[in-house]
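Example record

Each entry pairs one chain with its bound ligand, glutamic acid.
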Amino acid sequence: MPSEVRIRFAPSPTGALHVGGARTALFNWLFTRKNHGKFLLRIEDTDVKRSTRASLEQILDSLQWLGLQWDEGPFFQSERKAHYEEAIGQLLHTGNAYKCFCSPKRLNELRARAKAMSAPFIYDRMCATLSDAEVQRREAQGERCTIRFHVPLSGETIFDDVIFGPVRVENKLIGDFVIARSDGLATYNLCAVVDDNLMSISHVIRGEDHLSNTSKQILLYHALRYPVPKFVHLPLILEPDKAPLSKRHGATDVLQLREEGFLPEAVVNFLALLGWAYNGATEVFSLDELISKFSLKAVSKAAAVFDATKLLWMNGLYMRSLPQKVVIDRAKAFMAGAGYDIPQYDSKWLDGIITLEIERSKTLKELAAHLEFFLSDQLRYDETAVEKFLLREESQEIIGHVRNRLASLEQFDIKTLEQALRSLAEELNLKFGQVVHPTRVALTGSSASPGIFDVITNLGQSRVVARLDSALELIRQRRQP
Ligand code: GLU
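Structure tokens for the complex follow.
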């Protein structure tokens, strides 16, 4: 076993990078960084039909967004065919593999028979005993064949998984598996083993769904006389109701999370807790803390639960705890991506209103939505707020007074405004809140907003007066019988 820690993440570009893949990438990355190793990116694109350029780009983009930079690669399996052919040649030569001419029709029949008996499909090895002459004759006739690995008929294949412990599989249950398809292309198990060996991978860290492939791969390691790396299978990720993770409860692809306005720091922290725990109490970790505290020993084999509510909570936490300047820049970039023409706004003013809204926004998307009333004069009134605060008996009069008072001010700073509204409330014999609530709905369309004086100063006098006029108009219209 190589003493250097060399780790790979090996996605297939057949879809976007989802939460499960991202968690695998993160655990690989953290383990590498903690052990001062090398992190390799290998693209498993041998399935030509299902691999796409778009998926590849999404995967690279997702990894970069999460900050999981690789040290070597990306290596593309589609460019490494000669290595696989060489290994297959070696396996044929040593009698560890054989050519199989069974037609898809015959194999389907075998599968159907196994299914009818509720037994797993295990190839019946019909071609394992073909003579060399027979093989040559059939090839000469142009018959197509796959290549199967010769699994020993007896004994067990055993490996010690770092998380799952000893795993033993009876060889007779493995079945002679295909290592090259009839079009000549090597299959996943063969390519993974050849590459993990050539790339001197020390630890194979991947999802639990690959556990059943590992016994096959161990057999290949032995037959090819390669040193066997350590195997680490990460627990499944389930929904809170223990169903397999799906999109039912929201975004599960990394780039969708970005579109939903999540911060990569929060997503990384959240992903780290999917199977790993530090002391059971601390849940918030910076990337540096994760690197220093992460350990495979603390990864559980029990399935992890993807709790979308917790992700949202954690993102809110990061919105408030990252340096304000960082969140402001992210918010602007997010908004530009969502189609806002950022340069049209005065940048200090924009920074100011973003700062005001950070506190009550859990995501950048929510933040952008909260800024809407500052940016656009087409107010979207919240109906409940309108009913509660604008359509009350006294609201028309109060808003009328506020409008006139604010329109008459020569200065529009917080101190002057506060004095003006407080004395107005006194004159009208009202509590301050009775003046503020309808004013807030008139200015923002909603009953929740940053502090009223921050709202007023940032809108500016003319927009404030215009909005109070519009609210009065709305009240008049709605009051008409
Ligand atoms: N290409 C495989 C996948 O995306 C990776 C398996 C492995 O890590 O060996 O699931």
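The first strand starts at residue 6 and ends at 9.
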